[in-house]
Amino acid sequence: MFVSLGLLLLGWQIASFFLPEFVVPGLQLIGLEFINMAKEGTLLYDSLLTLYRVMQGLFGGFMLGGTLGIVMGTTKKSENYLMPMINFIMGVPALSWTLIVILWFRGTEARIFALMLAVSFPVFAHSIRDAVKGVSKDLLEMTLAFRPTRSQLLRMLILPSIVPNVLTAWKVSIGFAVRVVIVAELVGASTGVGYRMVQQQALLSMSGVLAWTLVLVMMGLTMQGIITGFESRLLRWRPTTH
Amino acid sequence: MPKIESRSLAKIFNTQEGSFEAIRNLSFHVDAGEVISVVGKTGCGKSTTLNILLGLEKPTEGSLTIDGKEPYAAFDYFRGKLCAVFQTDRLLPWRKVLDNAAYGLEILRIPAKERYNRARHWLERVGLEQFENAYPHHLSGGMRQRVGIARAFCVDPDVIFCDEAFGHLDEVTAIKLRADFLNLIRETHKTSVFVTHDINEAIELGRRVLVLGKPAHLLLEVEISQETNGDPSKRRELKERILKTIEDNHPC
């Protein structure tokens, strides 16, 4: 991994010697941007703000989508009603949602939250429905023979069964959510990484745009890493994790 | 009154491809404390019968009662009263052995301390006391099946069903496990029903053998005396008789 990334950086640096600064700025310039960003305080503030928006939206989407997924996975009837709606909502492009929430809501935070919710909950609903439907019939019968209550069935069999799928859904959603939140901030916010990027672009500062881009890449990777950490903790029981 | 009573039981599944008759006019009874075997070819409706016994399926016609109540209808009455050891171990892969053994007790809301004491006791009885912190995938097939047995005995059920529980194991393990299981059943005087396709196993385990045809109905019912079980030639004779009955009903 380090070799591969190192080669990329090396190639970039060599290219920067031959190409103008506003096309391929050298690594030292990007580094300087980071120092400036840190000095101004925007590095920490805007990154954390964007991170907060991503997490808040995803968490909302997870709660809503998860609930719908469990309901759909356990009752056929509700699935017939809910699935077409969810698929319809899922079909609306993220960019359309961005424009819609700007018209619907006033505050920046409300707009971004609504957007994140709209784009993330169908993904969670789908994957959690599939996971609930995929709960082993053998284990279900074994459990039912003991006569559990509905809540016991959910807590002792269904929820633990779907943990792997939930984690996968989070991993997929994080990458997606970071991309969407940036577009939202670009269009309708005066804070956050997306906004800072437009600012840098307006100043024709390629190194600034790239520095913020790096922030985003690292944010995405860090969150993926955290989920992977959860995965190896929560899924210790799986033979494949050893 | 018999513990378990089946009268003219019938089960028909209606699927998109048409209807499928799994059980036809099946009548039998099991007395309290009795140990019986049910033998028949694979796919003759044995598992469906077991699912009706466990209350997981509803009969299409006829009735099946345990303690005079229908397992499907009286869902709550049978909480913790019916247990099964299945063909595959059916352990929860995310639970350690101890928590798997205590699973039924947790559903019965037995406090943690007592739950674990009882689970440990039964794990010891099946010889797995040293593995309580292992995950199921660390154990061999035979050991996993032992955990399943401990889980069933843990809740101290009225009836224990056993669905081809030894069919997946190698012969050596199966012989040992069968003997251990039978000892536990005899010791605890549980009413037990062994469902199997193995005629030898059926004769060895049950005091009475029900031979099923396809779709499941009673072809033959034989008492197994101590004498028959102890005498190899008599056992062979009985096996031949059962084999012929099944063959005549449904030639392969």
How would you describe the overall organization of this protein?
The complex is a heterodimer of chains A (242) and B (252). Chain A is mainly α and 242 residues long. Chain A is built from 10 helices and no strands. Chain A has helices at 2-18, 27-40, 42-74, 76-91, 94-104, 108-133, 137-145, 150-188, 192-202, 206-234. In chain A, helix 8 runs antiparallel to helix 10. The radius of gyration of chain A is 22 Å and the shape is elongated. Chain B folds into 2 domains: 1-81 and 160-252, Rossmann fold (3-Layer(aba) Sandwich); 88-156. Chain B is built from 9 helices and 9 strands. In chain B, a hairpin with a 2-residue loop joins strand 1 and strand 2. The longest helix of chain B is centred in the C-terminal third of the chain and has 18 residues, at 171-188. Chain B is globular and about 50 Å long. In chain B, 44% of the residues are buried. The chains are: A mainly alpha (242), B alpha/beta (252). The A-B interface holds A 138-139, 141-148, 152, 156-157, 160, 163, 235-239 and B 51, 54-56, 75-76, 78-80, 82-84, 86, 88, 90, 92-95, 103-104, 106-108, 135-137, 155.
